[in-house]
Design brief:
The complex is a heterodimer.
Chain A: E1 3-7, E2 10-13, E3 19-26, E4 32-38, E5 44-52, E6 55-58, E7 65-70, E8 73-78, E9 87-94, E10 103-104, E11 108-112
Parallel strand pairs in A: 2-11
Antiparallel strand pairs in A: 1-3, 3-8, 4-5, 4-9, 5-6, 7-8, 9-10, 9-11
Chain B: E1 9-13, E2 18-23, E3 33-38, E4 45-50, E5 55-56, E6 61-64, E7 70-75, E8 84-92, E9 99-100, E10 106-111
Parallel strand pairs in B: 1-10
Antiparallel strand pairs in B: 2-7, 3-4, 3-8, 5-6, 6-7, 8-9, 8-10
Classes of the chains: A mainly beta, B mainly beta.
Chain lengths: ~110, ~110
Amino acid sequence: SQTIHQWPATLVQPVGSPLSLECTVEGTSNPNLYWYRQAAGRGLQLLFYSVGIGQISSEVPQNLSASRPQDRQFILSSKKLLLSDSGFYLCACNWGYGANVLTFGAGSRLTVL
Amino acid sequence: DAKTTQPTSMDCAEGRAANLPCNHSTISGNEYVYWYRQIHSQGPQYIIHGLKNNETNEMASLIITEDRKSSTLILPHATLRDTAVYYCIVENYGGATNKLIFGTGTLLAVQP
């Protein structure tokens, strides 16, 4: 079964600073990868997904970007953070053409001050 | 946008069955219904999914109405550890892959 590693687990950043959240996957190859964000007290919002190296689809316009430099690596970035970027960021994966069963990482909690 | 409607919150007594409803009246014929849950400050956890037939696994049962416009997730013997937000999701087709768009879910509080 797959395992997702996310880091850092927690970070506090000032407004205007850059951001890099990393996600790596073990136990599978050619996964579909997803970034979700959960604002305080809200549901999960799909931000980006990727079906292969270098292939990124954005679901909502925003201050963030994503990259997939390797098959099992997914990175979420920002050049200048906004207060509204605060939230709980979750990386997820699935694979193959079967059921859409996502495995989630433990998440990265970002606070922008 | 999420294609499902769920109650905001529900209570259940420990040891009793928890029945969580979900409406998905615009579901298409080949779209699956998925259920996930999220315990506070953790990533969501897959529970079960189905298309037409009722499904059961070690965690829960899923009952889908014949017209597929609604479903119910059943936790047969709820425990305190089942307190979580439960998400009912219909796959979103389009783009490079099918996506799961989460709504706000139902907060299930299991009471001792």
